[in-house]
Amino acid sequence: MRIPAWQIITSTTLVAGMMVFSVSRANHPAQAAEVKNAAPYTTWSDYLGSADSAQYSALKQINKTNVSQLQQVWFYPAGENANRFGFNPLVVGNTMIVMGRQNSVVALNATTGKELWMHDNHNSRLVTHRGINYWESKDHSDRRLLTTVDNHLIALDFATGKVIETFGDHGSVDLREGLGRDPKTISQIRSGTPGRVFENLLILGSATGEAYDSPPGDLRAYDVVTGKLVWQFHTVPHPGEMGYDTWPKDAWKYIGGVNAWGEITLDAKRGIVYFPLGSPTYDFYGADRHGANLFSDCLLALDARTGKYLWHFQTTHHDLWDYDLEAAPKLMTITKDGKKIDVIAEPGKNNFLWVLDRATGKPVWPVEERPVPKSDMPGEQSWPTQPFPTHVPPFGKQMFSADDVNPYIVDPKEREEIRQKVLHARNQGLYTPPSLENTLETPGNNGGANWGSGSIDPVTNTLYVVSKNAPSMLKLASRSSREMMTGDPETLGKIVYIQNCQMCHTATLEGQPPSIPSLVDIVGRVGADRVRSIVHEGSSPMPAFPDLPPRDLSHLIAFLQNPAKANVPPDVIAALDQPKQIVKDPEGRTRYWTGYGYMNSSTGMAAIGPPWSTITAYDMNKGTIKWQIPLGGVTELEARGITGTGSFWPRGGGVVTAGGLILIGTRSDSKLHAYDKDTGKLIWETVLPAGPQGIPAVYEIGGREYVALAAQSVAEPGQKTIKPTGPETTGYYVFALPKKP
Question: What structural domains does the chain harbor?
Fold first, then answer.
């Protein structure tokens, strides 16, 4: 079925009833009322600062003229065990909520950093680690935090951090229930990104994993008081639902993904919630999912109260590139041809900026379907066209040629090897489908815009996009059935390693620092339990492998503990590329896999030349680029006098302020930067003892404006430190102007 990229209809999804009752608590209602009555964009009581995900602050005490006077006023250590650190602090009244040591939830005095209480999550690996949700009743008597731990949604008392036992089943809701799959088979469903609170609802996405047989990414809303499910939207449509005919007949029973693991945006005035949705599983091979695959890779608008479908826009049909949408959609009111239009803007991994009418989903500027290269994979039916914006220019590269290889790779022999690899790879430009030979993907699946990437200035109608220039090299292959293999644990573990890990971490386990860590003695350094956690949940840029069988994982750990003991004969290694006993799905189709293909040199330098990250400023009234600059730099190169390269794979994004600034941290140079939002000129920066990650929080208490951001001394477990490691470096750095005498 050929479908337009956008469509609007009025059909409904199943809506459950909602029960609401109040629970009385004396949790400083005066402070809560103060937050509710505050001027727009002057508090930071929501993830990204506001429910509309603006990443904007109307505070202007800190501005272009005085930002150079910023000084650190307090620091709170989060400990080196913090999981995938990059938490966006939440500030309500004088209380800041953060993720602390061993993935605990911690309340701090927002002006001093003094710890008020800690909710211990016992180092659970599956926690919401980018932010947290806050809700309060209309009379401000009931105030609670909502987050997920080990696939369970929990509610905490804001004043004490204690679990609210009346929520759900004795304080928690099992998120694995109700997805049409056996909950015992679901190893991961919680998202690292918080949801959105609307009235008495918590609206959630999920992180399903990226393997075959992953669970579906249904969108759900829960009553914040009772924990009861209020509505649910099937992102892989069931029989009779819209989009069902864009999949094979029974796809809803076995296809996973199509999930909102990124950032959800709410238009509270309209009562509309917008979801950027991800790709279906498996990401790079779709013989079991012929069709356009709605609602994968869609910007989807639902009625926030009921879950009723409003409209969608699909940015990639039948995704074979893992081109998830995950950056928060941005709500703006622009002036086009003398007419004001409420729009929504979504930057993608493919470096396109999609600008749509907020009420209908129709493109504001023309988008056309263009033919793209056809897949030659057995059983695959790639979609013949993809949507291309015709007016708004892309914010990053969409082609990687041999002439673009990084000139700063020190070893000329290795540089030439990379050039030859690029020169001889299948490379037909954007949307080149993965194949059995080396295939260049530009932008790569970890490139373009990611979570935290967008921020706006509602006064000037400027949209700022942070993006990464990170191509990938894909190569699909079938796998041997490891159930048929025999040998000692170390040898079997090496086979698991070759098939899942070697492409990125190399045959010698040395990785590709600084982005891909060394695994040499990784078990001795972080422990077997931590390795299991990383494999199951992922640790950016490494994806999660939640469905790796326990047997395989035990063998992998045995190999990592003692790689010298592994003895895989050369003929077995060769057979891994041309297996006789290949893995098939229940319908008898061969399953193909590829690594994510991150392209770096042996010393960790990017394969492509700089800039490796940029900030692009769009004039949204015109749909044109105002300016673009490299974002940050790399400490090792700056020491050699090489600047203007951009940071290597930043994680997170920035905040725009009414003081004329873009405040943003970058981890490869361990700096907090302040850029002029009008020109992109660097005004001020400071070096931190750790690498900043996530999104800053900007807030004001007692007439003093603060900037808080998270930073981690070791970007990934086992990686070389950015700065000297220690328990007092990973945590929250808070800045303010000096107090007036």
Answer: 6-382+394-474+603-736 (2.140.10.10), 480-581 (1.10.760.10)
